[in-house]
Amino acid sequence: MKIINSTVSKPVYSYPFPQPQDKIAFFDIETTGLSPNASSLYLIGLMRFDPNQNQWMLCQWFADNYQSEKKMIQNFLEALADVEFLYHFNGQTFDIPYLLKKCGRHAITPSAHCNKLLQDKSGTYSIDLLKKIRPLRHALSLEKCKQTECERFLHLERTDSFSGADLIPVYSEYMQQKILAPDNAEKLEQVLLLHNHNDIEMMLNLCSLLTYDEYLSDTETGCLFPEETQKTLKAEQTSTEQLTITFPLPAAVPKEITMYACYPHNDIAETEENKTDCLLPKASLTFQKKAAILKIPLYHGTLKFFFPDYKNYYYLPAEDTAIHKSVSAFVDHAYRKKATAATCYTKKEGTF
Prior knowledge:
3 domains, 16 strands
């Protein structure tokens, strides 16, 4: 087994981690197949933040022989001793189950602390970036939620062009070239290490996408922004057709995105007749650096306000409005009738 330590480039996009940076780790594994029963683990990468150097550091355990697998896993688990939060991309589905299966095969019993990280399904200690980003797929206009697709969204460029599957024959060739051509084997080793290095290094940038998740996900209060933020909102009617509200954001988003919500057509009757014409106009929400801009179309005209307890109301056909039964005694019986759910309303004219 080889142990390779290296530095990681400063991320292009910063992210204000909610956890202490020195308690966070990122990891990724490389294998010769998807099944732990029919493949080998040949590389584990673990990235930690070093507060003394103010630098992210990567440690890689590389199997330079077929007997390294057990030792690699043991080293990895030992390195998790002071890690409180483990970040990964699709680790819940592949990397972690694969490692746990290999632990069973090698009679390795992870500590209670390691199990807290590896067995966590709530996302509290084990943070799967894929699970966080996947609900944002349509908002970010991603064709797929692969890691490389997310990198392209952020205009990030890798220094390697291989996929994990592409490297399976490369590792096989490396093991053969170790004896036949050591110099060539060294070059192949660098290719294998670089891919794992890039995978983990890019995760640091992908964390910036979590800002969208935090701003768009439902919160305990059901509010998109905290109450103290709502008190200082900047609302501006930029035209007779639109209201613009600007929200300050505590953390910048990595890239500007705009989402649209369709409003029903102004004329309800026309909407019923022409379903294809009921998506005008549109409201939009734009995330731009440290601001969210909400644009709401205005409606000028008459709207109906419906009362929920229609059994307590009478409808006046001549005036096309409903009144409460407490005042209906002043209206002639000929000009009133019991309201229904469809007629229990009052009208209001204005700008909405």
